[in-house]
From TrEMBL:
Top-rank lineage group of the source organism: Bacteria
Domain Dienelactone hydrolase: 15-229
InterPro entries, A to Z: AB_hydrolase_fold (IPR029058), Dienelactn_hydro (IPR002925), Dienelactone_hydrolase-like (IPR051049)
Organism: Maricaulis virginensis
GO molecular function: hydrolase activity
Pfam short name (any one): DLH
Descriptive protein name: Carboxymethylenebutenolidase
Length: 234
């Protein structure tokens, strides 16, 4: 299993992505949708972890239209300021075009079995929801997605499985937003919501200040089972 940088061509141009393949060289695909810190070591390690579980994982640079190659952390105020500035400039409507281009690219990679899903965190959690509503992803997972209630009118377009992990004490997703997500999505047969009542935003980010290993393990176990059920043929 070795990671490498690749290039993907979308409707608006070419952008970079990080690719990790399993040791076997074959498997279903998973598109990893970044947090507001770009394609950094956290996202690359997520790809590597998915590859170790038998998936071909690709993390596209969703900020390329604003600033290509963003790779920062949450460890300094300057980096945090930059991350939130990038999030403010980011357009989910054009971003989802790049997600679809990435899904298309992964399906054509040597060794891909054909089925391709997606997983996203924070900003990527919102993009995961939109991926389920607007693309042909075969199965999608979102962790502590922000601003999802603004797009609940698109829930009817979700035709394939979606799982969302919700942090109960998320500073960016207040209780009323979480309630709206449950009201809008609980009745949907393709959507599963999991609540983590005592956890804060980014509870699954290793090294993050809100990291909770127990909740992260639970969420990741649910995610892995979900992908194995919906993306693997055996």
């Amino acid at each position: 299993m070795t990671g490498q940088d690749i290039r993907i061509t979308g409707p608006a141009g070419e952008f970079s992505a990080y690719l990790a393949k399993p040791a076997s060289g074959t498997g279903p695909g998973v598109v990893v949708l970044q947090e507001i810190f770009g394609v950094n070591h956290v996202m690359r390690e997520m790809c590597d972890r998915l590859a170790s579980q038998g998936f071909i994982a690709v993390c596209p640079d969703l900020f390329w239209r604003i600033e290509p190659g963003v790779d920062i952390t949450d460890k300094s105020q300057a980096e945090l300021d930059k991350a939130f500035d990038l999030m403010g400039k980011f357009n989910p409507d054009t971003g989802i075009e790049d997600v679809q281009a990435t899904l298309d690219h992964v399906r054509k990679l040597d060794g891909c079995t054909g089925k391709v899903g997606a997983i996203g965190f924070c900003l990527g959690g919102l993009m995961a929801y939109l991926t389920a509503a607007r693309t042909d992803s075969d199965a999608t997972v979102g962790y502590y997605g922000v601003n999802i209630p603004n797009f609940l009118d698109e829930a009817g377009k979700i035709s394939k499985p979606l799982m969302l992990h919700i942090a109960g004490r998320d500073e960016f997703v207040p209780p009323e937003s979480q309630a709206a997500m449950h009201t809008g999505l609980d009745p949907h047969r393709q959507v599963t919501l999991h609540d983590y009542p005592d956890d804060e935003h980014a509870f699954s980010r290793i090294e993050g200040k809100h990291y909770n290993p127990q909740s992260a393990h639970l969420a990741d176990s649910r995610t892995l089972e979900f992908f194995r059920k919906n993306l693997k043929s055996e």
